[in-house]
DNA sequence: TGGGGTGGCTAATGCCATTAGCCTTAAGCT
DNA sequence: AGCTTAAGGCTAATGGCATTAGCCACCCCA
């Protein structure tokens, strides 16, 4: 009987893809094992149970999302950076809803857990984008939380099919970014002498 | 052996409360049965399984959230209505995270499913609030989606403990509402002759 | 060539959801 | 009051899942 050639990375990647297809909540060791052409207990040679698997998927998702945002922002500034960053995040959620869902709700288990830094990266990239607007220091955190909330909320509602009417969702998103940009630039002007 | 005095409402309410405590994902028929002092199969006399139970919790949550927003808005207008509505929604999520989580992801199963109207109510209330800003008709849907996304995103991030730094979360929320109000009023002025 | 670890497997346990079928209770009717 | 009946408990049984223990073949390397 030939080996299946699995390791922790392959299993995690396959689990992530499966989660994207059926939802992180439906992910099970047995379905994943079937998908990989292996019996369920074999997965335990590579991954420490379902909990550990979803944790790994969360790290993967956060890392990939961070990569996507960073790449989108590279070489841009101002509204363009804001639009690119938020669209990159939203696009990642659309392409990988299961991985993204794994990141929400996941909490680092300790100081050496790679999940902590991984989760921080997309947020940090957004923070950099917002610095272009020259906000007051105590406003930066509020603006960051706002943008995070907006993109996260929009993407998750979109993912669950929560937007009902026929109005174009893409258009709503760009309108929202425009709204943000205007408001943030207004604040900046507010603080000029 | 005396009867436990259960019916569908009591079971749903108890399930909702349990979901608020341990999370909708951890809700199980067996824990709920134990909580109600009854054996698991007895619950099936009142509720058609775990899926049906969470569906009922979703209807309950959406209805309660709708009530909360409607009451908050009553007698107010403008920013005050916007602040009251969004704070009411956020407050509901804080008080009843399990019920709210049940509403997200739940989809009506048919035209006679009470979930549809229940989910629509909080959104409709928000739409009414936004009408005070006298937006252009084609902008209304974008603004509504934006506000929904923002509040939903903020509340869910807050619920999962996603806001890290010590900065006051209440302050961020009121800052965000203020930002919205300014932007929305600005749009209105934009469209005056 | 001959270990030894790696990575499969089967078997077994225990929890959970769900269904079937029994039996008591309580409510209502005569 | 006594009888009937349905509602609402229960036990028993099934099947899916996660997880663990322990077995065994394969492959790499000495």
TrEMBL record, chains A, B:
Matching InterPro entries: Homeodomain-like_sf, MT1864/Rv1816-like_C, Tet_transcr_reg_TetR-rel_C_sf
Keywords: Transcription, Transcription regulation
One family name in Pfam for this protein: TetR_C_33
Presence of keyword Transcription: yes
HTH-type transcriptional regulator MT1864/Rv1816-like C-terminal domain segment(s): 82-180
Protein name, per record: TetR/AcrR family transcriptional regulator
């Amino acid at each position: 009987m030939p080996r299946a050639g699995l390791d922790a990375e392959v299993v995690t990647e396959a689990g992530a893809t499966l989660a994207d297809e059926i939802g992180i909540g439906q992910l099970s060791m047995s379905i994943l094992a079937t998908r990989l052409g292996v019996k369920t207990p074999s997965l335990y040679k590579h991954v420490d149970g379902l909990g550990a698997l979803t944790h790994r998927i969360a790290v993967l998702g956060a890392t990939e999302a961070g990569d996507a945002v960073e790449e989108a922002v590279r070489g841009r500034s101002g509204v363009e950076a804001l639009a690119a960053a938020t669209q990159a995040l939203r696009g990642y959620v659309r392409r990988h809803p299961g991985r993204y869902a794994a990141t929400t709700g996941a909490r680092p288990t300790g100081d050496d857990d790679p999940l902590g830094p991984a989760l921080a990266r997309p947020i940090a990239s957004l923070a950099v984008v917002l610095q272009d607007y020259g906000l007051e220091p105590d406003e930066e955190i509020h603006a960051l939380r706002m943008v995070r909330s907006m993109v996260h909320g929009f993407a998750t509602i979109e993912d669950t099919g929560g937007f009902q009417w026929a109005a174009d969702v893409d258009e709503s998103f760009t309108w929202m970014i425009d709204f943000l940009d205007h408001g943030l630039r207004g604040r900046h002007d507010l603080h000029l002498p």
